[in-house]
Amino acid sequence: MSVVSLLGVNVLNNPAKFGDSYQFEITFECLEPLQKDLEWKLTYVGSATSDEHDQELDSLLVGPIPVGVNKFIFEADPPDTKRIPDAEILGVTVILLTCAYDNREFVRVGYYVNNEYDSDELNADPPSKPILEKVRRNVLAEKPRVTRFAIKWDSEASAPAEFPPEQPEADLVADGDQYGAEEAEEEEEEEVAEGAEGAVADPDAMVDDSEMAGVEGEKAVEAGEESDDGSEDLEAESSGSDEEELEEEEVEGEAEDMEMDGVEKPNGTNGAVDHHVDAVMAH
Predict the structure, then answer these.
(1) Is residue 76 domain-resident?
(2) 82 half-sphere exposure, CB direction, 13 A CA radius
(3) Is residue 198 classed as helix, strand or coil in its secondary structure?
(4) If pLDDT is split at 50, 70 and 90, which confidence band does 172 have?
(5) Where is this region: Disordered (predicted)?
(6) What is the pLDDT of residue 165?
């Protein structure tokens, strides 16, 4: 849990001229005494294509911090136009308001800023060299983007976990027992339901089947009686052929064994697979 929570930020002088200072009314809450100060910074993004034009407009140390709700006004100078390309002065850019404790950033508020001329004629046909005196900025204060980070404060107990907590109970059940278990139960229920429907659906078909089964059984008995009369001769005639088949099978089996003995079996190798984990960082 964060010891310091940002409650609100109000942009005071907005809209304003491009060369006017930035002013923010910041409200935050502190839940316990802190040993060090809070460091607030305001950064101006000078170019959307490269961070080499970013400027830290101002920074402020606030402390000691009393427990409870606190409010102060943060004022920062405007950006240095010499460090901004002429093509990047007009249009939409971003300012970042950040706060850190002991060099560990725990909150970031981003605002879009629209820079344009104060006249429709200049906006319709802007000169190649920007006229800074006629450029006005408008901070879109109604749509900030707030990002919070878990950090370590004064105590070790407040430090965020480096790894997810262990879950020993999750390893007691195999994955195969969990995944697809519900689907297997549903399939079994559907099979049972289909079998019950098939058993009750057509009683006439059951009678017909039983009658047919009886007729077939009688025919099978009659055929069995007829076959018993000549069974001795068939067994006597087939005994010789069975022995020949057995001998042929034994010969073929020996031939296969000889062929397998002449073949070398490849030795199995165990390959190692490296797993790479991409680290994603918030910017």
Answers:
(1) yes
(2) 0
(3) helix
(4) low
(5) 179-283
(6) 53
Domain count for the chain, please give it.
1
Q: Which of 140, 113, 127, 142 is closest to 55 using CA atoms?
A: 113
pLDDT at 246: 42
Report the first-to-last Cα separation within the chain, whole angstroms.
21
Question: What is the distance, to the nearest Å, from the Cα of residue 130 to the centroid of all Cα atoms in its chain?
Answer: 45
Per-position b or e across 117-134, b if 16+ CB within 10 A of its CB: beeeebeeeeeeebeeee
CATH number at 20 reads 2.60.40.1490
Compute the distance between CA of residue 192 and CA of residue 222 in angstroms, rounded to an integer.
Answer: 38
Domain limits for position 114? 4-158
> Which single residue is written with the structure tokens 């055929």?
223
278 found inside a domain: no
Question: pLDDT tens digits, residue range 41-92?
Answer: 999 998 877 788 899 999 999 999 999 999 999 999 999 999 998 989 999 9
pTM to 2 decimal places: 0.56
